[in-house]
Design a protein that fits this description.
By secondary structure, the chain is mostly beta strands. The chain contains three helices and 15 strands. Strand 4 and strand 5 (86-89) form a beta hairpin.
C-alpha cells in the first residue's frame, strides 16, 4: 500500500504583545523619511501587486530609527515585536532569520536608549521582503475570497484553510504573499526553531498546508 506523504503545515506569524505595547517609543518618526514614519510612503511604486517591490520593502531612511524605552508604555522588548507593519527584533531573532531566510530579509540597526539617557539593548528593524504571488490554490482553499483589487480576504481568520502551491513557495521557511501584504507566514521548521531558541513575543496559528 502506498504511503501518503505528510503535508507541510503553514502558519501565520504574529506577536504576543498586548495592547499596552512594547514600551519602545519611536522618537524620530518625522525625520526618518520625507512624509515621516517607518512604512514606505508609496506602498506599491510599480503598481498594485507588482513584485518585487511592495509595502514590505524598507525605505532608505535619512537616519536610523531611534526608540526610547518608557516603562509606562510597556515591559521592554521581546525577541519579536511588530511596529507599523515591520518587525522589531533582538539579535538572536536576527540570527534565526539569517539562518533560515538568509537572502529574504532587510535590516536596519536601531538606536535605543532609556528615558534616563542610558544606552538601550541592541534592536533591529526587520522586514521579510520575500513575497510570492499566486502561491495559493484558491480552488483547494476554504474561507478565502479575492477582492476587486486582487487581494486575499479572510472573513474568518481562524476558519481559513489555505492550500499553498509547493511549485511556487518551494522550500521557503518564512515568506509573505503579495495578495496579503500585512501577514507573515512560516513553515514547521521555522516554528520549531523559534521554540527551541525560546524566542519571546512570537505566536503561530495554523493557516493551511502545502499541496504535495
Amino acid at each position: 500500500m502506498a504511503v501518503k506523504s505528510k503535508k507541510s503545515v503553514v502558519y501565520s506569524v504574529a506577536t504576543t504583545r498586548s495592547d499596552r505595547g512594547s514600551g519602545w517609543e519611536l522618537v524620530n518618526r518625522d525625520r526618518l523619511q520625507a512624509g515621516g514614519g517607518i512604512r514606505p510612503t508609496v506602498a506599491w511604486p510599480d503598481g498594485p501587486l507588482v513584485l518585487p517591490r511592495g509595502p514590505w520593502n524598507t525605505p532608505q531612511y535619512l537616519e536610523p530609527p531611534h526608540f526610547v524605552f518608557k516603562q509606562r508604555l510597556g515591559h521592554g522588548p521581546h525577541d519579536f515585536d511588530i511596529r507599523d507593519g515591520f518587525f522589531l527584533i533582538s539579535p538572536r531573532m536576527k540570527e534565526l532569520f539569517d539562518e533560515l531566510a538568509p537572502h529574504d530579509c532587510e535590516y536596519t540597526r536601531c538606536i535605543t536608549s532609556y528615558s534616563n539617557g542610558d544606552a538601550g539593548p541592541e534592536l533591529w528593524l526587520c522586514s521579510i521582503v520575500k513575497a510570492y504571488r499566486d502561491a495559493v490554490d484558491l480552488e483547494s482553499s476554504s474561507n478565502v475570497t479575492v477582492s476587486s483589487y486582487g487581494l486575499y480576504l479572510f472573513p474568518n481568520f481562524r476558519e481559513t484553510d489555505l492550500a499553498f502551491k509547493s511549485s511556487v513557495i518551494g522550500s521557503a521557511h518564512v515568506f509573505r504573499l503579495a495578495e496579503k501584504a500585512s501577514s507573515l507566514f512560516c513553515d514547521d521548521e521555522f516554528k520549531i526553531r523559534c521554540r527551541a531558541k525560546e524566542i519571546t513575543g512570537i505566536s503561530f496559528e495554523k493557516i493551511g498546508s502545502v499541496l504535495n
